[in-house]
Amino acid sequence: MEVEIKLRLPDSATHQKLSNLLAPFHTKTLIQENIFFDGTNRELTSNLAVLRIRFYNLEHCVLSLKAKPVISAGISRMEEHEEPFDPALARACIAEPWRLLSVDSSMILKRVRDEYRVGENGVVCLGGFRNVRAVHQWKGLKLELDETNYDFGTSYELECESDDPERHKKLLEEFLQV
Q1: Can you give the pTM of this predicted structure?
Q2: For residues 5 and 171, what is the distance between their CA atoms, to the nearest angstrom?
Q3: Roughly how many angstroms between the first and final C-alpha of the chain, as a whole number?
Q4: What is the pLDDT of residues 56-78, one digit of tens each?
Q5: Helix, strand or coil for residue 172?
Q6: Rounded to the nearest 5 degrees, what angle is found at the Cα of 129, between the Cα atoms of 49 and 163?
Q7: By the 8 A CB rule, do 119 and 103 touch?
């Protein structure tokens, strides 16, 4: 079970201010590309599940399935499974989504076929977005400061995986008041 704190930031000025405050704790920056898929009959989205291919710095790739989300007070809890995925195969699947159904080596795609019945009527690429993620280590927490670019605009957020989300959310909110 993945538990994340997600705090939306109102604008680029707030993002820049937070970036400056976190600069001493910066460990790396990731350029991410996220592409989403579903069955032609919305088998995943109708069951609150998401199938994603994510590229990191355009060279590494991960296939993930997120399911059964519960979001309350800025804290997201959901089941998440990830596995490495060949970047060349991923690009082929984006161009021709039906190729996903022929990947037998993936436990995630097996689950998508078996549990969600994706593939009986085909699979579609839903599109995606790109983001720049600045990763920081702060007070024992891994903070991810995102600038996400959609076709329709840009959003900003601070994300933190946590085993004690209520306490860490309060700590982050206090930090953001600075």
Answers
A1: 0.90
A2: 11
A3: 32
A4: 998 899 999 999 988 887 778 88
A5: helix
A6: 55
A7: no
